[in-house]
Amino acid sequence: MVPHTHSLRVWIALLGSGLAGGLVATQSRVNGGLSQAIGDGYVTAVVSFGSGLVILVLIVLASRTARGGLRRVRAEVGGGRLPVWALTGGLCGAFFVLGQGLVASVIGLAVFTVGVVAGQVTGGLVMDRIGLGPGGRVDPSVQRMLGAALAVVAVGLSVLADLLGGGAGLWLVVIPVVAGVGVAWQSAMNGLVRSAAHSAITATFINFVVGTSVLIVAAGISVAVNGWPADWPADPLLYIGGATGVVFIGVAALLVRTAGVLLLSMSNVAGQLIAAVAFEAGLPLADGVTPGLLVGAAVALAAVVIAALPRRTRPSAA
Q1: CB neighbours of 109 closer than 8 A, spacing ≥ 6?
Q2: Highest-scoring range by mean pLDDT, 95-99, 221-225, 294-298
Q3: What is the pLDDT at residue 246?
Q4: Does the pTM exceed 0.85?
Q5: How does the average pLDDT of the chain come out, rounded?
Q6: ∠ CA(175), CA(178), CA(183), 5° rounding?
Q7: Which is higher by pLDDT, 54 or 285?
Q8: Cβ–Cβ under 8 Å, residues 271 and 226
Q9: CB neighbours (10 Å) of residue 19?
Q10: At residue 257, does pLDDT exceed 80?
Q11: Between 214 and 287, where is the model more confident?
């Protein structure tokens, strides 16, 4: 019964992560749209991360568990049991949100998302292998290796038309790829912090404090050079990026121990791709949906299912 129960928990974690991935695509669409409207991706990133931090401050003030988690993290870091670099997940989150504002509005949400896919699955595979996640070292099975390879193929299929057409801005895909590796790192680090704090809220709060601090400096430099954005859109939906980020990071910190960094990243990827294609079909940031994107999304879904299959074990002799 225990193996079946564990398998069910993993699949529930993957479903939750997939839904959270849809929120990541939503955040990318929102932040890309806000960046287009105000003309400053750095200020957009601060608005997104900063609003999320405000939400988390209120939650932490109301949660005794979260406040206790902060004390535990401080004790763990002070005692050397939790390394300081485990608190750097917010740096990667800041870079990801910055990429949403600076790049997604140029290359389109779907292409941005498949670039993130490549980084997430590669980063997740490596981090599981060397044991950076809270669940320790996870050796890659044949299914996981095949799933990761298919996910990378999905990226190539999604941008094939741009490759053949010699798109001038295609090199910008490098930015979401690096951001995707950062997302995998962020999930692993926040999982470590969550284990130390015994609170996903605490891990999410620390993530947002670190990320907002870095982005405020970057936005300050941008405003000093370019001035404060003059036109701010009235649509309230363009300001929900922070709230969606809070949910996504909290879910990832909660589920990474159950699913592992790689499987969590891949199920998250599936949710991102499905939502990104839907947004590009209805509310495109750039060129909209292409046949390559549809095929790539389908291959990515197959990759997640294959990677999530349990290992086959030979029955022991009686």
Answers
A1: 25, 28, 29, 32, 276, 279, 280, 284, 285, 286
A2: 221-225
A3: 86
A4: no
A5: 81
A6: 120
A7: 54
A8: no
A9: 16
A10: no
A11: 214
What pLDDT, in 10s, does the model give residues 104-157? 877 777 778 878 877 877 787 788 777 776 666 777 778 778 877 887 787 777
Closest CA to 123 of 309, 256, 283, 273: 256
Q: Residue 218 phi/psi, 5° resolution?
A: -65, -40
Tokens, residue 110: 């779907």
Q: Are 86 and 189 in contact (CB under 8 A)?
A: yes
Nearest alpha-carbon partner for 87 in 250, 177, 196: 196
Q: What is the distance, to the nearest Å, from the Cα of residue 203 to the centroid of all Cα atoms in its chain?
A: 15
Q: Which amino acid is at 224?
A: A
| Dihedral sign, Cα of residue 22, residue 24, residue 28, residue 30 | positive
Closest to 27 (Cα-Cα) out of 45, 39, 42: 45
Taking a C-beta distance cutoff of 8 angstroms, is the pair 100, 28 a contact?
yes
Tokens for 109? Answer: 């949400």
What span, in angstroms and rounded, lies between the C-alpha atoms of 243 and 225? 29
Residue with tokens 């568990």: 65
Which three-class secondary structure string do you get for the chain? Answer: CHHHHHHHHHHHHHHHHHHHHHHHHHHHHHHHHHHHHHCCHHHHHHHHHHHHHHHHHHHHHHCHHHHHHHHHHHHHHHCCCCCHHHHCHHHHHHHHHHHHHHHHHHHCHHHHHHHHHHHHHHHHHHHHHHCCCCCCCCCCCHHHHHHHHHHHHHHHHHCHHHHHHCCCCHHHHHHHHHHHHHHHHHHHHHHHHHHHHCCHHHHHHHHHHHHHHHHHHHHHHHHHHHCCCCCCCCCHHHHCHHHHHHHHHHHHHHHHHHHCHHHHHHHHHHHHHHHHHHHHHHCCCCCCCCHHHHHHHHHHHHHHHHHHCCCCCCCCCC
Residue 202 structure tokens: 């605490």
